[in-house]
Design goal:
The complex is a heterotrimer of chains A (205), B (272) and C (548). With 205 residues, chain A is mostly helical. Chain A has a domain at 69-205: Cytochrome c oxidase, subunit III, four-helix bundle (Four Helix Bundle (Hemerythrin (Met), subunit A), Up-down Bundle), CATH 1.20.120. In chain A, 75% of the residues lie in helices and 0% in strands. Chain A is built from six helices and no strands. In chain A, helix 2 (26-58) runs antiparallel to helix 5 (137-168) and helix 5 runs antiparallel to helix 6. In chain B, helix 6 (146-183) runs antiparallel to helix 7 and helix 6 (146-183) crosses helix 8. The longest helix of chain B is centred in the middle third of the chain and has 38 residues, at 146-183. The radius of gyration of chain B is 31 Å and the shape is elongated. The relative contact order of chain B is 0.05. Classes of the chains: A mainly alpha (205), B mainly alpha (272), C mainly alpha (548). Chains in contact: A-B, A-C, B-C.
Chain lengths: 205, 272, 548
């Protein structure tokens, strides 16, 4: 009785030629442009916030509504959290460049945790603020600026998670780790933007 | 090395910085404020000053990236990739996900201003597109053979896509039937439901009794049936729901959250 | 499944000839396409339709203001809304996407790349832009847009416009990244064709400008819908958008037009562009001076109008004057290039020349605007300037479409229709722009309604006639756009134009017309900014040598 050779998917996959290397710099520079552009949204609103606050103070009035309470601790803790995440993101990139997926995964996990902690801290800050979103122009600007930054962090976490997924698949190690470098660059910009948000809203209020 | 690209970005940053300082001083800034971002004096109009300063910072950042990447010249890129020649870029194949992203964006925009549920649907659609893209990007680089990459992608995603698409199709059909039944009177709805059931059973019986029937015919029957059901559902939705007498008192929830008409615009400085 | 990093050079050899999945056919070739040429053509075609609609509306608004005391076509409120519709349509649904589309199709060819950096993102950007543009237009149909009285419809305008901005920014990132990272071996940034360079510099300034508008619109949306309307409510919406039509922001829209002219002129002069690096510098300077997001109206906490604190201040004046420098410098270079060459008067050169003249007039008008003693800044002088610059850019872009038609469509455009269309747009823009500017010099305020209150009673008839003339001018421009659209739809019959019908200089002329998927089988050696010109002259020289 004749037997029929059955080719499984796994055999087909393993016989396929290896993927050509990705062209370096494309994702990195695209990310730098996109991150710079996204930052401009928040910087413009910070400019508007600073202008309106300056005008109010120049008239001898109080900027923050009476019931408003911008607490120093949650905002500063968020800043510290993000600063710590810079180290873990650098750790991811370094580990993947050295083909050390174990450390890279650990660093991914810690970064995602720190990002989640930041979002939690921001939510706590909103809870403590004591202002409804639409209660005053001040509140509207604060919620919009911080909300946009939380969205920026969320996108950064998603970017890191996608690159982490691909790193687990073995695509982004050694010389090909640029996808992760791009995600790291975006994350660095995100933290830089938060430093401005933190200084403008939390410190100088 | 200061490359051509970095010269551009640093130049843009420099122009923005100079403009920021000039802007600060001419709009009420004093002392060294415009030079020190307000640390040693006022910066004038914070809005324009802030925008110029931000543009300068971002331009300098991009200049630094261009310097680090040495303008991504092909020879440099090949060196980074560890290859003799620059790695090629492969044109993208056909994909319907970009138009779906457009559809998702439309749902988000319309949902924002009208119906929160649509907004959520829009977010879900955009989320699905992003997931599909991420997987596609991964699969495109799984091997050097596009056909194998396609099989890898399908093997990962089809077990999710087919049930999800089936559930979506069922939901649409169920919703369409519901709209039809809600539009008809209770008595007529019963007869229509019975007729629909008979048609479905008869179609199923006919298809089952002819095992050699062409798959194109089956697909054609299903597509035509689906279009009829969806069309009737839309018609039912447009006709509206029949009157129900169980809850006579009408609540005014419909007005909740609705916005009052805007007053005539107060701003007269209409710059053109 | 094992997915490992490839042995690099072996894999590279395997991938030397890009092998994408089967090329799409039928509906997928358009709707599902990730081909930059298809996406670019979609952008160009759709934006042209929006431009026609905008010009028609602009014409009606101009005719409406023939009688400044009463209204004939629309009511007073509708005139305001229609004005904002034509302005929004002209910039965000018309000129910007037209340039983005042209760049998406042409830039990869110019830099020797097989595609744009992020083809799927570009495709998504087109569809999001198209759908959002439709929503912006729909908002006007249901009493929305700035000055609308239906709250949801006004909100729809803002949300739709934010989505339009996001889409344009994404498409721009893709184009700028293509120039920055996908250049062929030998093509340093200094050797980049000038249209691609103009997209790099202009596009990067767009990426700093569009987000500012998006951010401000986001706050406006929230304030209008849920807040205390400290940003001026429905009427305030336009004050958040209008600055994009003023100098300096206006100028950055025109930067790619400078690049297009700079690529067309040397081809039709049949000699190299004079001082390529100086041209790069001047285009860069024009882009840097065009960053104008700072020159907008701010906001006050109590909702009262925020003054434009920068008007007649040094930075605004300096930018207004300095903006003339790069345009004059480039005009000098182009005159020199044409003067020393053997000029061949083709349609692209004619359209580029006419559009360039309009842009120059607009920039010169801008320099006059900043002279405080002339007191032009609050008048329709600025509206005339906007008309000249934007429609000038549009005429140049039409010249670009005619120039690159073999690469876009595989055919040349019919000369008569192309020239007629471009000339009508040019004449219409010239008439409308000058009429509005003169009306502004006669003190007609920028205010769309009641703008003539500051006009001397003796000049009122003149101003009203000028308003009518501007409306007629925009009508002529609309007609020209219809003719240009017909030229694109008809194309030239017969055999294809060949790969290089103009004897081009840059890389796009080294591939087939229309380009195949992957664009290039082989690339010529790139040792200057004009590799195809070099190759042609080297071949001619060796032929002469051999025959000698």
């Amino acid at each position: 009785m004749a037997t029929t050779a059955v080719t499984t998917d796994l055999e087909v996959f393993s016989e396929a030629p290896p993927a050509p290397p990705a062209r370096p710099r494309v994702l990195l520079i695209g990310t730098a442009l996109a991150a710079g552009s996204a930052s401009m949204v928040i910087f413009a609103l910070i400019g508007l916030y600073a202008k309106m606050r300056h005008d109010v103070l120049a008239d001898g009035e109080v900027w923050m509504p009476e019931e408003g309470n911008v607490q120093l601790t949650p905002g500063s803790m968020a800043m510290v959290t993000l600063l710590l995440s810079l180290l873990t993101v650098a750790w991811i990139v370094q580990a993947l460049r050295n083909d050390d997926r174990g450390h890279a995964l650990m660093a991914f996990g810690v970064t995602l945790l720190l990002g989640a902690a930041y979002i939690n801290g921001a939510a706590y800050g909103w809870q403590q603020l004591g202002l409804g979103v639409t209660s005053s122009p001040q509140a509207l600007l604060i919620y919009t600026i911080t909300g946009l930054h939380v969205a920026m962090v969320g996108i950064g976490l998603l970017f890191l998670a996608v690159m982490g997924f691909r790193a687990v698949g073995g695509q982004l190690t050694g010389r090909a780790a640029e996808g992760v470098s791009a995600a790291a660059l975006y994350w660095f910009v995100t933290v830089g933007v938060y430093a401005t948000v933190w200084y403008t809203i939390t410190i100088t209020k | 090395m200061i490359t051509t690209g970095s010269k551009w970005f640093f130049g843009l940053g420099f122009v923005s910085l100079v403009l920021a300082a000039a802007y600060g001083w001419t709009t009420g800034g004093n002392g060294l404020g415009p030079l020190t971002a307000g640390y040693k004096g006022g910066v004038g109009d914070h809005f324009g000053y802030g925008i110029l300063l931000a543009a300068a910072v971002i331009s300098i950042f991009l200049g630094a990236v261009a310097t680090a990447a040495r303008d991504a010249d092909a020879e440099v890129v090949a060196q980074v990739a560890g290859t003799d020649t620059v790695p090629p870029v492969t044109p993208a194949g056909a994909s319907y996900w970009p138009p779906v992203a457009g559809f998702g964006a439309a749902l988000i925009v319309i949902g924002l201003v009208s119906e929160p549920l649509l907004f959520v649907f829009g977010l879900i659609v955009v989320g699905i597109v992003l997931v599909e893209w991420a997987v596609q990007a991964w699969a495109d680089r799984a091997t050097g053979d596009p056909e194998t990459n396609r099989r890898i992608r399908n093997r990962l995603m089809n077990p999710i896509e087919y049930p999800a698409a089936g559930a979506l199709a069922l939901a649409v059909v169920a919703l369409a039937f519901a709209q039809v039944f809600l539009a008809l009177s209770a008595e007529v709805a019963v007869w229509v439901a019975l007729a629909a059931a008979v048609v479905i059973v008869a179609a199923g019986f006919l298809i089952a009794s002819r095992p050699r029937i062409s798959s194109n015919v089956v697909v054609g029957v299903l597509v035509v049936g689906a279009l009829i059901v969806i069309g009737l559902g839309v018609a039912g939705g447009v006709a509206g729901t029949r009157e129900f007498h169980e809850h006579e008192e009408e609540s005014d929830h419909g007005a909740e959250g609705a916005l009052a008409p805007l007053a005539a615009p107060a701003v007269v400085e209409v710059a053109r | 499944m094992t997915v490992t990093e490839a042995p690099r050079d072996a894999a590279l050899e395997a991938a030397a000839a890009p092998s994408p999945s089967a090329p799409p056919t039928g509906l997928a070739a358009v709707v599902g396409s990730g081909d930059p040429r298809t996406i670019g053509k979609l952008f160009v075609g759709t934006s042209l339709l929006f431009l026609i609609a905008s010009a028609v509306v602009g014409s009606l608004v101009g005719i409406e203001q023939y009688d400044t005391a009463g209204t004939e076509i629309f009511g007073a409120d509708t005139t305001l809304r229609m004005f904002t519709l034509q302005a929004t349509g002209l910039l965000f649904l018309g000129v910007l996407p037209l340039l983005v589309g042209l760049a998406t199709a042409i830039v990869p060819l110019q830099v020797g790349a097989a595609t744009v950096a992020f083809p799927r993102a570009s495709a998504a950007a087109y569809w999001v832009w198209l759908v959002s543009s439709g929503l912006v237009l729909a908002s006007y149909a249901i009493d929305g847009g700035p000055f609308g009285t239906e709250p949801e419809a006004v909100s729809l305008y803002i949300a739709g416009l934010i989505a339009v901005l996001v889409a344009l920014a994404v498409a721009t990132v893709s184009v700028v990244t293509t120039v920055a990272t996908l250049r062929a071996p030998g093509m340093s940034l200094r050797r980049t064709p000038l249209f691609s360079w103009s997209m790099l510099v202009g596009g990067s300034v767009w990426l700093l400008t569009l987000p500012v508008l998006a951010g401000v619109l986001l706050v406006t949306y929230l304030d209008l819908r849920y807040g205390e309307q400290f940003l001026g409510g429905s009427g305030g919406v336009w004050n958040r958008v209008a600055w994009t039509l003023w100098q300096p922001t206006l100028y950055v829209v025109a930067v790619p037009a400078l690049g297009i002219i700079a690529d067309i002129v040397p081809v039709f002069a049949r000699r190299r562009h004079q001082r390529h690096r100086s041209a790069m510098f001047l285009i860069g300077l024009a882009a840097a001076l065009g960053f104008g997001a700072w020159a907008q109206l701010g906001a006050t906490i109590d909702g009262s109008d925020a003054p434009a604190v920068w008007i007649n201040e040094a930075p605004w004046q300096a930018v207004g004057f300095l903006a003339v420098v790069p345009v004059l410098g480039l005009l000098g270079l182009w005159t020199g290039t044409l003067g020393r060459g053997k000029v061949k008067l083709g349609t692209p050169l004619i359209l580029a020349g006419m559009g360039g003249l309009l842009v120059f007039l607009g920039v010169a008008a801008g320099a006059a605007t900043v002279i405080g003693e002339l007191d032009l800044s609050g008048t329709t002088w600025m509206t005339g300037q906007t008309t000249l610059v934007l429609l000038g850019t549009l005429v140049v872009a039409l010249g670009g479409v005619a120039f690159w038609a073999p690469k876009l469509y595989g055919k040349l455009l019919p000369d008569v229709l192309s020239r007629l269309g471009g000339t009508l747009v040019f004449l219409g823009a010239l008439v409308a722009g000058i009429a509005l500017a003169v009306a502004g010099a006669l003190s007609q305020s920028r205010l769309v309604t009641g703008g003539a209150t500051a006009v001397d009673s003796g000049d009122l008839d003149t101003v009203e006639t000028l308003n009518l003339v501007s409306g007629i001018g925009l009508g002529v421009a609309a007609l020209g756009l219809v003719v240009a659209a017909l030229a694109m739809a008809k194309r030239r019959s017969g055999d294809g134009p060949g790969d290089d019908p103009w004897d081009g200089h840059t890389l796009e002329w080294a591939t087939s017309s229309p380009p195949a998927v992957g664009h290039f089988a082989t690339l010529p050696a790139i040792t200057s900014e004009a590799p195809v010109y070099d190759a042609r002259h080297a071949a001619a020289a060796s032929k002469t040598e051999a025959s000698a």
